[in-house]
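Task card 7
Instruction: Convert sequence to structure tokens.
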Amino acid sequence: MIGLIVARKGSKGFPGKNRKLVPIMLDEVEKSELDPLWISTDDDELKDEVRGRRVKVHDRPDNLATDTTSVRDVVLEFALTQKIHRSEYIYVLYPTYPQRRSSFINRAIFLAEQAPGHFVSILGFKKPKTHPYLCYEVTKTGKTLKLIGHQLYRRQDYPECVEICHAVCIVKVSELHRVDHQMWSPYTHPFFIHDNDLIDIDTPEDWEEYLDAKRG
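Output:
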């Protein structure tokens, strides 16, 4: 299965984020069963980082290196440019999960190999810390609106729900047009993640939380 690290240079919320995270993930990714391994990036420093390792570089075009570019479009462009066959599967590696181990990646690969042949993608899901029935939107005028309309007040009556977690993201090339910008479709096969301490690093505060967890 192809492994594709997606790591652009810019990050408004956490400048230089991927320069910190990609080196951390490389050792674990290279120990996994993913082969070949690629990185799609516009960052010359990251290109230098993977030089001499078993990671091939795909030069991401500038128009797909903005803060509004979706990962789906990045994967589509990669598959088209590198002429990846439509029958291939790509494990899209978001660098923002530095706690993801090679054994974790291999379990996801195994699930993909055992999943029904018609699946479009496999995504990670975990239990959310807050149920969406308790969440409200804050409008531009400062008012609050329920994100989901309901009249339930007892937690035990709330439907079971899960939160997407891109620590696992596997998609078949021929089905890329069927997934949304979160890489999800009604035919997505779930990979349930029971480790709710898996940190998704998007801000400097997340990074500090990761460092604290690493220090124990």
